[in-house]
Amino acid sequence: MAMVWVSDGSSQTGYDRPQASQHSRSCQGNQDPCGKHSQPHGNQRFARRKAQEEGEECPRVGAGAGQRHGHEDGKPPDTVLVDRLTSPLPHLFDPPLDELDAGEPAVVEEREQIINRHENQDVGGHSHEKDRQPRYPPCKPQRNCSTQLDPGYEGNCYQRQEFCQHSFASIPFRSILSSLTQLIYARVLIYHGMSQKRPAIGILTAPFGAGHQLAAEAVRQALQPSCDARLFDPFSRLPVGAGQRLVKAYLDLLRYTPDLLRLVYNGTGELPLGGALQIILSQGLWLVLGSIFEHWVQENRPQAVVATHPFTAALADAWLMLRREMKQDEKQDQKRGQKPGEEQRQGQKQDFPFFVVTTDFAPHPFWFYPTVTSYCVATPDFAHRLVQMGIPAERIKVTGIPVRQQFVNPPDRQTALCCLGLAGPSGETGQTGQAAMTEPAGIAGATGHEPLVLLMGGGLGVGRYKDILRGLLTVSVPLHLVIFTGKNQKLYRSLHLFLEESPVSHHRIDILQYTENIVDWMAAADILVTKPGGLTLAEALTVGVPLVLIDPVPGHEEENAEYVVMTGAALTATTSSLPAVVQDLLAHQDLRLRLRRAARNLARPDAAQRIAQIVSAAVTL
């Protein structure tokens, strides 16, 4: 039962609080049927004796006590009335003064008499007007209440157990009704918003190269505000260890049989679209992953599918081809007057737009299938070659390779150095926008630190790291070498052992594993030495870091390197020529600046947003 003291705030000198009597204070610790005679710690006997001397009849606390007094639930009438009217809910709101009602005069007068008796007398009938001690916080003054509080009044008035003589007047009925209405309206809005489900978009990727997974994540980030974008790697649903063994087999092919990969890639590059190669790849993947993909579709019901790897594109193509065959069978059954089966009806409902997002700068038939709705490609030259291969121009969208949100607005160089703890003297200032492409005069890194050179091999840590590192250690200019091994734990440990066995070098060398703040490292770097993976190039071009490309994977990465070098955004080197290329690039400021400008011209930082717009438009049609 919540009790409050209220006041109209008419006093100009402060608040005067009517002091609770010793009797009323003692009543707080007990449940007394009449609210008057109970005493804490076993003093009920003395209270009953005193009541008998006064000519009153006070029953013991318990069942039936209230009936002997004619009260409800063992409480006097005025207490029951206050209980009903002063619930905790009204005190949750601050009512406007014009909404208060003075209440019935008879009720107020009767209640005042009871309160005065409780406040000014204890069990012995002694007055405690002179013993007032402030024990509670000041009540907020209310209208139509003549009660005043003491100036030194402290504590929480809602914790007191005394009665408020104007409790009925303090109930803001209209405010409560308004608040409840707003609460119900808010609940309706929330329920309505939750009931409007966003369209589900499936983004398919594969573990063969971290770039494909990063591209899928970039598309997911761009789609998320308007769609329910969900990443799915069907290879991760294979039996335990199967996916890891496939990745290991892929890395072994890159390491031990690069010429075989180059032969297969170049030999299949001129095959017609929709030929035997695509059919074999598509049907082979369906035999291995078909049930996994079918279960995922039934579970998620995507309204569109985006593939960022050739294998997942082939898998989605096989699924859509199967659905189209079912539709044809249904049409034939309808001509014969037969009703379609349940599986055919489901296949007709589950068809969806299919998009392929390429992650390389050159096309290959592995990417292209007849069921694709639109191709999102990297460059206009890429699109032109697809038209020559027979793909309709309206199905080709030049969007660029998607990069994550952190690369859309990369930090300037000085900010990145500060974030990495590599900032120069305090007098240096950062630059933003196009000014971030400027270079310090003379040798890079002459601002007080060694030139920062990064070595990367993709998220899987692919490449001849030790051979490349041996060459960089021979550079005469002191360098700060930062080597990224990605998720390759074996490479990380072997490079540490290699450096421990190597002679002491004048270079500062750090070996890092996979990191999420790679954008800061690229923005701070003077040179990035890397293999030409599609996503690595797209991110580096967006940041504008000078590139030296080395040790490409046979096939698609060789074509990536050829295209980027042709545009003037990168240099190439071999393991033997790398030291000379790096030293020459560090010594020529104009060459570094030219590489940065060419990279920015080739970059498409809004690629993911463009892809998201294309997919969203197809879903909402």
What does this structure look like?
- With about 625 residues, the chain is of the alpha/beta class.
- The strands form two sheets. A six-stranded parallel sheet has the order 2-1-3-4-5-6, sandwiched between helices. Strands 9-8-7-10-11-12 form a six-stranded parallel sheet, sandwiched between helices.
- α7 packs across α22 and α14 crosses α17.
- The N terminus is likely disordered.
Assign the structural class, choosing from mainly alpha, mainly beta, alpha/beta, alpha+beta, or little secondary structure: alpha/beta
Q: Rg from C-alpha positions?
A: 40 Å
Question: What is the strand content?
Answer: 5-15%
Tell me the strand order in the biggest sheet. Answer: 2-1-3-4-5-6
Unreliable stretches: 1-42, 58-104, 121-168, 191-195, 343-349, 425-438
Summarize the biggest pleated sheet.
Answer: 6 strands, parallel
Relative helix content: 40-55%
Number of β-strand runs: 12
Helix-strand layout with pairing:
Layout: H1 22-26, H2 44-53, H3 65-69, H4 77-85, H5 105-120, H6 173-195, E1 200-204, H7 210-223, E2 228-232, H8 242-256, H9 258-268, H10 276-300, E3 304-307, H11 310-335, H12 342-349, E4 354-357, E5 374-377, H13 380-388, E6 396-398, H14 413-419, E7 452-456, H15 465-472, E8 480-484, H16 489-501, E9 508-512, H17 518-524, E10 527-530, H18 534-543, E11 547-549, H19 556-566, E12 570-572, H20 578-587, H21 589-602, H22 607-620
Parallel strand pairs: 1-2, 1-3, 3-4, 4-5, 5-6, 7-8, 7-10, 8-9, 10-11, 11-12
